[in-house]
């Protein structure tokens, strides 16, 4: 009864018609309960339900816009329901496609994968040896300087500078050889020897990560060495954080090993640290990581693979309506994989690893999903890479007087090469889709920059929709279809059980 | 460049590691521009990117929960994209199914439809004649009273009361005969003579609306008559709004005609009125109404009908997985029709009609989409019917001492009968689905009432999801499939061009 009475209870106690003075609504109290005298109870049917002018809450002239939270809930529900339906449809059509056998991966792939897993980090220790020698040379120069200038506040002479540069050049060359040999060798192995793209991507990713770490280690230590040789006693040119471990005392195996496992690509002699490890936190992140990985695997095997196979004929016959239909269907699947993958890697894995390493700076990503510009997406979704790019590529170029726009283009070119290495090489088709996908972000960035300073809610919405559309709805599915098609054009179905559709186009 | 520098700019100027005192970050200013001395610019690579402990924004230990507006946008986008895909799939499978020919409606249906369209309101004027006679009788009684008691403040005697009741009984019987004859005749015609369910629903809806208006007119005037006869000179028992038109001066053809066309089922001698009509407003509402009607028609013909036809075999073979799949697919389509239909009828049509009639109380619905209880949905989605039920059925019962729970059950039983009349009769299958669909709301109401007083955001969310699931995702599609199946079991495909699937099960 309460709700039926609610609107009586909330009915205004006074009414105003056509601007006249408010008048009491005598009937209101009659409706509330059954305690009044019988004479007034009789006239229920005369109650003035329409007692005052009111607007419909969806009209433009309504006083306040109503909440639309219920429609947000409905959207989520319809998404779940319609994808549940597609899952039933898929099950009816294909049955269960997921198998636990890993037999399709050749023993050659496994051997190379394991070999490179152990070989790759060795180059990090190669970099350590180089830095150890460089530190020794720098110490020698410094020792000589100290002898010459003794207790006087020292200023670098021309001869010192020459010494300094004479040690820097060979060090740079040896570092470049060490790091790049590793990357080139790993790339060669993945492209020519590892057939399975899964093992290929993991191996290539490992080598790229280690290569970036070696670069950061070398570049940072070079600047630390310069800072030591410039011999500013206040150390004001260096972050205060580093004072606890001044150069060259950071050149140790322990310090490097920490950097090797720390969830960052940027070398610092000292990082902000936690004092304790929360083991339940580590356990939860590990569980999340494995559950999400299973989700991605099931989604790929059960939903993405049949869809990609079905699209092969449409691509070879260039049936654009069908290709569009396939891209749109794939977009939901790739979105699930992308979001699950993002969470698994950047939230679960990195937080878990950071907890193990007592690494306190957990800002591995920003709220990129709210990005209203493509630029803010690229600077916030992957902070470890953004930090590397900013510190070792973009900022040094700006410091050397390169115009920002040129520096941005060069940064994205570099990033494009890394992306092509990570996708093109393991799939044995250097198509340039990944590369141009990255470089193609530049026009999008300049296009969506107009939404950055827009104040209106709608401009931000449009920017956010452009980001999602370009990146997740079209970008990723089109790239996935392209690499899948190229793979099948090159290898056919040799590594998989025969599949009617795929066979038909051979 | 601005964004790449942004996080430098926004980097804290001081850091605190492991609870130590904040220390200045000397590097920050170096990174901003190229104006500093060369010596400090050199050490770009040593910049402390990881300068303080930070949390990931999705972690539970984050200081603030980030905004998830971007994900709401993504949900909307995925909904649009995945339904766009289904539209392409539908077009590839069926081509364009929409035709403008209305030839499948027999001339007999048209004739009866038009005849009832003009006949139905006549009974409203029948009610007017009855009230005119009743008012005359009441005036006679009052005149006699006045003669007897003259200028003294009058109190009703036993004889007066007898007179009063002696007029009331025959009036009630004649009203009941007048109103119910019309409803029974219209129902008989729709069930036996009008084959087309579209014309059937419109005719039946018209007769139900007029029947409710006649009931409200009769009941309200009875109470107004009682109030006049009780002769309270202050008129305190009646709403102040009615003072401008005291009984029996409201019993005119003009007053009744206004009620006939006013967007309400509840009779009042006087309504809150607007002084002017906004013709652009009327034009916009009319355009909305026709566009939304076209949307519903296209959605039904192109998407719902093939789906319903495809489900016929699954229903006759009781394949529950397939039926579930059909129900889930139909739910999106029926939701579009439902939301468009709601907006077309309650926002566009009723606001347009109200503007024409200068009817000022436009509260035809509340924000039912946010309902966290099924009760609040039923009291807010259709205010005209809720007002009728509250004023003429529920409140009088409560006033007569009926327990609220019994009054609620009786109200829903009455509503169930009306729903079955509106759906079962035009589809020529009085299955009881509509009736029990309404009565089945009662347990749902008592179930979801637990969420009404729940303070938490999650309880409201659960309540809202239960409402959407029960009503829109399962309730409506299941009812639609049931009536469609019953229709085809009874009539086969006689009124439509032959259809392979439908033919197969005959």
Automatic annotation (TrEMBL), chains A, B:
Segments for region (Disordered): 1-38
Q: What is its main location?
A: endoplasmic reticulum
| GO MF term set | diacylglycerol O-acyltransferase activity
Per UniProt, what is the membrane topology? Multi-pass membrane protein
> What's a single GO CC term here?
endoplasmic reticulum membrane
Q: Which InterPro entries match?
A: MBOAT_fam, Oat_ACAT_DAG_ARE
Which Pfam families does the entry link to? MBOAT (PF03062)
Q: Which residues form the active site?
A: 419
Keywords of the record: Acyltransferase, Endoplasmic reticulum, Membrane, Transferase, Transmembrane, Transmembrane helix
Q: In which pathway does it act?
A: Lipid metabolism
- The UniProt transmembrane annotation reads 114-134, 171-192, 287-307, 327-346, 397-418, 430-451, 463-486
GO BP, sorted A to Z: triglyceride biosynthetic process
- Where does the record place Polar residues bias? 1-17
Give the subcellular location. Endoplasmic reticulum membrane
Top-level division of the source organism's lineage = Eukaryota
Functionally, this protein is described as follows: Sterol O-acyltransferase that catalyzes the formation of stery esters.
Family assignment? Belongs to the membrane-bound acyltransferase family. Sterol o-acyltransferase subfamily.
Descriptive protein name: O-acyltransferase
